[in-house]
Design goal:
4 helices; three-stranded mixed sheet; mainly alpha; flat
Length: 189
């Protein structure tokens, strides 16, 4: 009985081994199929395009040589002269373009400097007006908003009476650089 059992086990092991070999063969075949499927196709058009362009260039060269009586040296000299003339013309154009860019840059810098100077002048005027309002005991400098744009001073907030409103206008007009005062102070009830 033990020999039969050993023979049955051996047969089962051989079957399992055969199945494993078959599965491994299938896996190798699938891997090979995937590898082939992933290989990019060779592109032919770039090579054909290159050959076509070279052929056209060669044809143009042969045709131009047929109709041109000059020697190779004379043709080279003429080509170099044309290239030099083109470079000289391009150099002059580049120089003019560079000068135009430099002029535009200088104008832009000048405008930016003017805007910055105007902003600084407006801030100086605003500070001077706030300081002047703070010295007046009848006006509350903390409640009056002062803004300046292009030399025009705007006052907003409450004023205790008409005389204080007029004093605020006079004080705001005093600093150097003030063009006009826009008094929007409202009389307190």
């Amino acid at each position: 009985m033990s020999t039969t059992l050993h023979e049955t086990e051996a047969a089962a092991l051989r079957r399992d081994e055969a199945r494993a070999d078959a599965e491994a063969a299938r896996a190798r075949a699938d891997a090979e199929a995937l590898r082939r499927a992933r290989q990019p196709r060779a592109r032919r058009w770039p090579g054909l395009l290159t050959v076509g362009l070279l052929g056209a260039a060669l044809g143009a060269l042969l045709t131009s040589n047929y109709y041109d009586d000059r020697t190779l040296g004379q043709r080279l000299d003429a080509g170099l002269d044309r290239a030099g003339a083109n470079l000289r013309g391009s150099g002059a154009e580049l120089r003019q373009d560079a000068q135009a860019v430099a002029r535009d840059g200088a104008l832009a810098t000048e405008r930016a400097t003017e805007r910055a100077a105007d902003a600084v002048a407006d801030a100086r005027i605003t500070t001077a007006v706030k300081a002047a309002l703070a010295t007046d005991p009848g006006l509350s400098a903390l409640r009056i908003e002062v803004s300046t744009e292009a030399g025009v001073v705007r006052l907003e907030g409450p004023a205790p009476d008409a005389a204080a409103r007029e004093r605020a206008t006079t004080l705001a007009a005093a600093p150097e650089g003030v063009q006009r005062v826009d008094n929007r102070l409202s009389l307190a009830p």
